[in-house]
Amino acid sequence: MEQSRYFGYLCPKCGVGVTAGRTVFSLQAAAARMQCQCGQSELRVETDGVKFRLWVPCGLCGKEHQAELSAEALLQGRGVGLACPETGALCCYCGQETEVHRALARLALTAAKDKENAEAFTDNVIMYEVLSELRDMAARDGIACACGSHRYTMKVRRGFVDLTCSDCGGTLRLSAATDEDLDDLCCHMALTIPGGRA
Does residue 198 lie in a domain region? Predict the structure, then answer.
């Protein structure tokens, strides 16, 4: 049975993992194109007989990267990973089918985590401004609880910030998602957390 090599990448357009196999003979004979089912990205492989040149769509940064590999690196062994120069993480894997599928699963997980972190807040700029305002307010001792305590904890969520009194457990929730939320906070010189337990 003729040996095949597999390629895997994450489509930057639709986010789907793309895997495709080509025989060693066909890779050495002609250029190869492996397209995502969405039709908006494709991995290209060309050779001059000595080395292989790859054009890889990157599902991590959204750009296309170019790489050169020796024939030995591409056609032999378990496989080789290609890294995104912007993130440093693997964005493509070439090699044995099982290794490619394993690498693609890790790549999909990395991309999902990156997306989750990028979308940590409803609006990153507004959240930054709200936290800066709260820091300034805390520096002038402008945050206190109705129970008289000035000790509190702060939890930052996706679209709001919770201030919780460390003594009575009272909580003040501040929205931190829109310009109006920021304007509202800036109108206050001080904040009072409503008391929790009587």
Answer: no
Range of the domain at 105: 4-118
pLDDT value at position 67?
Answer: 93
Domains contained in the chain, number: 2
pLDDT-above-90 percentage for the chain: 48
Task: Give the C-alpha separation, 91 to 111, whole Å.
Answer: 9
Q: Do 23 and 93 sit in the same domain of this protein?
A: yes
Q: Provide CB contacts within 8 A for 111, sequence distance 6+.
A: 10, 15, 59, 60
Q: Does residue 101 share a domain with residue 46?
A: yes
Burial tier of 140 (Cβ tally within 10 Å: 0-12, 13-18, 19+):
exposed
pLDDT recorded at residue 198: 44
Query: Do 77 and 3 touch, CB atoms closer than 8 A?
Result: no
Judgement on whether residues 111 and 128 belong to the same structural domain of the protein: no
pTM greater than 0.70 (yes/no):
no
List, in order, residues 6 or more apart from 76 with CB less than 8 Å away: none
Nearest C-alpha neighbor of 94 from the set 68, 120, 73, 117: 73
For helices 124-139 and 179-186, what crossing angle results, to 10°? 10
Residue 196: name the closest of 174, 161, 163, 155 by CA.
163
Assess contact for 117 and 169: CB atoms under 8 A.
no
CA distances to 16, 18, 94, 124 from 39, in Å: 11, 11, 21, 33
